[in-house]
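Encoded backbone
================
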Amino acid sequence: MLEAGNNSELPAIPSKRYFTIGEVSDLCGVKPHVLRYWEQEFPQLKPIKRRGNRRYYQRHDVIMIRQIRGLLYDQGFTIGGARQRLSGEVAKDDSNQSQQIIRQMRVELEEILKILK
């Protein structure tokens, strides 16, 4: 499993519409039971639930989980502090997500460029 300080070493987010809890667990370096707990603690985290209460996360959910992980594991916030920080950053949140999406797209484009060479 990834160490707390290795947030930059997380794998790239594939270009899929929905992710299962197992896939998100691998992408974010967090166990599934922690993801389920964070859903209760962070109102911003709302995966779609379908048949049999199966969770399906979207790209913005994965980015939010990575932000939560960074606040808790890398920056040392408590759950309450991270919740307060995220709720206070409503305007900044869109900017942060945009920056993360741009970084992700850049990584994916670089990978495509390597394949084409």
